[in-house]
Amino acid sequence: MLQSNLVDVMVLTVEAAATLAFAVSGMLEAARKRLDPVGVCVVAGLAAFGGGTLRDILLDRRPFFWVAHATWLWVLLVACIGAMAWLKVRHVVLTHRAMQWPDALGLGLFSASGTQLAMLQGMPAIVAVLMGVITAVFGGVLRDIVCNEIPSAFADHKPYAVCAFVGGWALLGLQYLHVPDGLALLLAAAVTFGLRLWAMQTNFHLPGWDTGH
Amino acid sequence: MLQSNLVDVMVLTVEAAATLAFAVSGMLEAARKRLDPVGVCVVAGLAAFGGGTLRDILLDRRPFFWVAHATWLWVLLVACIGAMAWLKVRHVVLTHRAMQWPDALGLGLFSASGTQLAMLQGMPAIVAVLMGVITAVFGGVLRDIVCNEIPSAFADHKPYAVCAFVGGWALLGLQYLHVPDGLALLLAAAVTFGLRLWAMQTNFHLPGWDTGH
Amino acid sequence: MLQSNLVDVMVLTVEAAATLAFAVSGMLEAARKRLDPVGVCVVAGLAAFGGGTLRDILLDRRPFFWVAHATWLWVLLVACIGAMAWLKVRHVVLTHRAMQWPDALGLGLFSASGTQLAMLQGMPAIVAVLMGVITAVFGGVLRDIVCNEIPSAFADHKPYAVCAFVGGWALLGLQYLHVPDGLALLLAAAVTFGLRLWAMQTNFHLPGWDTGH
User: Fold this and answer.
1) pTM above the 0.90 mark?
2) Domain span at residue C184?
3) Is B150 in CB contact (< 8 Å) with chain A?
4) Domains in chain C, number
5) Taking 50 as the threshold, does the pLDDT of residue A161 lie above it?
């Protein structure tokens, strides 16, 4: 009982940190592209909630996270406006490096929880893993599409979606071994998180492909 | 009774004018990007119906407007082909200025009706207002994405979505005060419309944001 | 009985060939844009399954093709990785010309089957034809949007969606004449296929449109 509560609190804390990290990634890209405040809020919202929303549309699940917990929309709105006001006064440079940690946490947690959700709906294994990847990665993809960029998840040759993919399979393996749900979620998230950090540390690059066109 | 009929006719007239204005905005951008006739029709259709369709997907509502009223698809198709043929013969320059009025009418009406629809489905207030903004604004967003541009609603620093956002809250305020539905719709649409026109007249600009990147 | 089986086998064979052709079109564009292997797989998947998935979202149909037949996801994944490995070793140039045939087959078959599906759901004629076009064309549209290009289906001035549009109406005409379903499907697909090949042979161009902007 106590342990399950502890897992819940941990998951909630990581989720909040990761959602904010995703939102900040949207704000930064919007600022780089010189969007106006509306664009900053929309792109931050897409980055934070876009992946889970697309997953829910594909799985035909309702209500969306941001409908069931509409308070998060207020948090996002206030955070965006606050950040814009604050950054106008103080010149803070939010480096990509500072965001790697929460972003990798989100990658791990959202892919594991997305995979778990899809399994509960009786999806085939490969589809469930794919739903996990979509949950974790497609917020950033929508962010980049709206900002008129090729999605960095598909083009920067650093393992990102691949880590979520491996973590999804880890979750299915742990479920197969009858590991309790909460623990399996955390372990699978840790696999993705660890892989992502390791890839960043070693500057691992996915092989390129040149067709000579 | 008579009054309610009058409101219905007014709403229908404004809706038709606004849908056409949105379609024309799609045609103009498609022409600027030198799309072929298929592209012109598709982008016009996205601009006209894309926002409402996305709202209905998010709210899980069926049938879509253009399925229940499929005649509108014919109107759009004939209008696009007619306009292309006509503009080949006569050199008419449809200025942005000429389209400001019907576009602002559409912004007002569609955001108010989108908010109202979402409230009827029991959405939280902030979600309902967001649905109104999506209804009014995301047709243009999809138009710009297909045309490979950063959506002007997020980047031109002129209040557009913001006006729809305020109008949505106005609608909720009027509903709270038990103003009859038809009247509340028109008043909220007028708030958005008035704000938008005022912003255009005064050349009001949303503050920029520079992170130094 | 035998005849119906023969039709089924033919349809299945053409579908497989066409899905692979669409996937290859995605791989080639991803390679041209120097995406990483993740991007290659995602864009290939979007090109292959994106049109049918969007149609199913619009028609509110579940499960998607790639959920009901999840094996296809494995086929796609293995094919993409295999192709990338193979093309690294041997320098094969997959010309657009070599892909015209299976692509035109897919255009014909997917537009006819998409139209048929929508008719079964009781859609109005124009909506059903539009759903056929979306099934056949929007995989390529999503592919181009993710690759940050204006969709070629809307901009290359060669008849593509138009052929699918005509084929959709041919299907409705054949159904009206009480032609059996399987035969009507093949004939309508043949109309689209023939039109597309004829347009390629004669280098037919859709008229341009210049607004002087």
Assistant:
1) yes
2) 2-202
3) yes
4) 1
5) yes
